[in-house]
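User: I've been going back and forth on whether these two constructs are worth ordering. Before I decide, could you fold them both?

Assistant: Sure. I'll take them in the order you sent them. The first construct and its structure tokens:
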Amino acid sequence: MRTHYLQHVPFEGLGSVAPWLRARGFPVTATRFYEDPTLPDPAAIDLLLVMGGPMSVNDEDPLPWLVAEKRFVRAVITAGAPVLGVCLGAQLIASALGAPVRAAGRKEIGWFPVRGVVPGDGAREAGVFRFPTSIDAFHWHGETFEMPEGAVHLARSDACENQAFQFGRSVIGLQFHLETTPESAREMVENCRHELQPAPTVQDEATILAAGVERYRRINQLMAGILDFLASAARSQGPFTV
């Protein structure tokens, strides 16, 4: 399965997704926008991963490559390949599908519970991913997306109603970070420490980095489950109209 990922800053990479890809022997390529914004042929991709970043999807004037990136994401979705977006990546998918992305009422940074939204029986039969009733996930976001038209709401938190969605059989957007490892959490803190201003939904550096191994294992396991779900859907639906 030819996998391509979009990376926006050096400190928000694949995290736990990298060993999942290696274990399956998938060929992997990347576009690192901070180095070169060149994008491949959308038809040559079997799985697209859109990672996070501190910028906004609305920063098209200072970051003109965002226009091409959103067009590319939409083209991959239309081609029927599975797509997973994380944080900024989920916002980019939502924007590419025509949904607004805006500042959230409050930032959410640190470890906070995410609760699964249980779909109806019809949604389950249609192949909708099921989140746990509750899981402590890693967050670092100040913006949120509206639900794209036709998407299924998958998860919420106390601070952010729209935490995850699924579009069609093979597109999932996650506002939170399930790929986080102890190393990537430290990199986020080191590069974005200025955002750790005291607030009810912003944890301090010590609290964020005190998370135990079991907490990381749970979110990484859930991420692997999502990736397995998307891999099983690889081009199964064929071209998709958006």
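The second construct, handled the same way:
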Amino acid sequence: MGETTEGTLPSLSRNRRRVSLVLLVAFAALFPYVAVPRPADLTAFDPAEAAGLETAMWRHYYDHRFAALFLDLYRLARDQQGFSPLDSARIAVAAARAAKTFQPTTSRNEAQAAVPLLADYFAVLARGAPGPVDIAAAAAAELDWWQARRESVGPKDYGLTIARVATLLYGVDGADVRTFGVLRAEAMAFRDARGAAITEADWDAIDAQLRDAYGHLKQAVSRGAKIR
């Protein structure tokens, strides 16, 4: 019995070394895929896909399903914008945390708690922008239109702030960018007006409106319209 046990020890040790080697090789192969930054491109989005993901995000936000919201944000960054899995996760975590932090606030002062998280979000997102991004300005503008919705500001007004965020990210301006912002804001206002009575048909209408909005943004970034 003792001889059998002693004979198995070298074998077990060799097996452990083989397993460790396999895990090391697998880690070395996966690390570049997961962690190394990719040449992401914010302008590479498909309008219909982006609209569908945003519609899903809104639904999950209002249902307080933040894990599902995280997955939608991850897919947007990974599939539509080309970020690495690690950067996609960082973008999704920062955005989801910002939304979760903002949701229970009741004043502009309280809402400022979301600013650092929005800054984290835009800092990673900026890696896929076609030019330099003023991260602090983008975070402030994003929070501004979030708060404006709560203050009975009309969608045509806070839609222009949404357009301002797009201008900061994409480096473009013009009628299509402003139309994108207003259409997106009007879709939000429609959702807010429907409230708890919202139906699947309403969500389909929101998705269609967002497709139109992102179509205008795609036209603007494809042309590379200069900032005025």
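Notes on the second construct follow. The chain is about 75% helix and 0% strand. The mean pLDDT is 86.
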